[in-house]
């Protein structure tokens, strides 16, 4: 990186559509080389944030800087490659012609053939753009975003329309981009992708930054592990609820053939300590399961907590 | 920007339907209208034979087709489809998109003018001085910019669904009422009074003035100039509005 300015700097950025605050006082900084996932439900302000970041929309207040300059200046300097969900393609031209255009327009272009190969579309280079499947079109968009040597790659829901195999191949390509020292920012609905690929996760909710950390930290924030077990007979719930590191406990009738019993489900921020304390109660838990809470559940928990707070 | 112009052009030349309507169709229409006309009787009040008169009308019509039909619909569709947004993520200057569209349309409109001239000269023996042929080509070609601006304005005004009917109504309305398909002297008086204020009428009148070896009417020049200012200003305003919204 030639500059010490952050790759992306949002300072108190707000954008409203009528009464709806799509982005509300957003402040964040991306540093060089990070792979960052932008997570949030529909309407959380992800696409608006990316539009603001790329200068497609102007904030009502606050400032957006890329590499210490305006978004447009950064784009003109060839420092940003972007793939938008809403980004269309030019019809009735071939894939190769379109990618050549993107290379021609970029100040620091790569070879057309290399771009095609890296995006995995070399074999459909002569096909007309309007005859592509959804997943192929996404790869063409990716090729347009990586037509030159940009420092920041921005991707909005990049794997929409791809099947599982293509998706994996896509992320492998994406990792190569990140490994070359680029900063990668992507918005996604596939939360397991954020978990697997990003080294930093930003959770956006109602236009505000709800959480900012590693995927592991985000999970921890919501109560990271789920403990489930059966107990025979009836048990006093009070000592269970007093176990350390709990975030929630539910007790239900167990459906096991062993007869009357209960199933206890616990969420804990430190499962080891909770289970250790559980045995200390002198009970004999059966069918004990300790499982990680997927980011998806973590995410649901965080947003639910946020909504409860705001009521 | 050159690469975008090149690609727009490649695409236009590949589109057979578009080429037919902008390059071949005006010549066919010319033959249909002027085909049986003798070369002595004159169009009322012009001193020009029907083939000579219609040659300019049809060349103007062809240029109008090339610059209006392709652009308005493509711009509206590409705005809706997001291609315009995607281009804004490249270093291409904002106006480059509109400029490339207009430039590629201008390249297609040139043959549509010349083909009508060739057909008129070969089939209907239309004879003019060399300077008249050149001046006609230049005037009709340059005049088509007025309608290129109109095409861009419609492209930024209309949505993807509405753009075709709006373009068609504008296109046929301007062509017919402006007298590109038949001399306006055949219209009833009240319609003639309307027609003479249309930019298409002024456009064809410019060419006919060259054929008559006289200076164009000030009114025609004024109508074209005002139309161009209106269309180009409207296109620029709509473009800026669209950019802020997108």
How is this structure best described in words?
The complex is a heterodimer of chains A (311) and B (246). With 311 residues, chain A is of the alpha/beta class. Chain A contains eleven helices and 13 strands. Chain A has two domains: 8-220, Rossmann fold (3-Layer(aba) Sandwich), CATH 3.40.50; 224-292, Alpha-Beta Plaits (2-Layer Sandwich), CATH 3.30.70. Chain A is elongated. With 246 residues, chain B is mainly α. Chain B has one domain. Chain B is built from ten helices and no strands. The longest helix of chain B is centred in the first third of the chain and has 32 residues, at 50-81.
Keyword list:
heterodimer; A: 311 residues; alpha/beta; Rossmann fold; Alpha-Beta Plaits; 2 domains; 6-stranded mixed β-sheet; 4-stranded antiparallel β-sheet; B: 246 residues; mainly alpha; 10 helices; 0% strand; globular; transmembrane (chain B)
Topology:
The complex is a heterodimer of chains A (311) and B (246).
Chain A: E1 8-17, E2 20-30, E3 35-39, H1 46-53, E4 61-66, H2 71-76, E5 80-83, H3 95-105, H4 112-118, H5 134-145, E6 152-156, H6 164-179, E7 183-188, H7 191-197, E8 200-205, E9 208-213, H8 215-221, E10 225-232, H9 237-241, E11 246-253, E12 261-268, H10 271-280, E13 286-292, H11 295-310
Parallel strand pairs in A: 3-7, 3-8, 5-6, 6-7
Antiparallel strand pairs in A: 1-2, 1-4, 8-9, 10-12, 10-13, 11-12
Chain B: H1 2-14, H2 16-34, H3 50-81, H4 83-88, H5 96-123, H6 130-157, H7 163-177, H8 189-195, H9 199-211, H10 218-245
Helix pairs in contact in B: 1-5, 2-3, 2-5, 3-5, 3-6, 3-7, 3-9, 5-6, 6-9, 6-10, 9-10
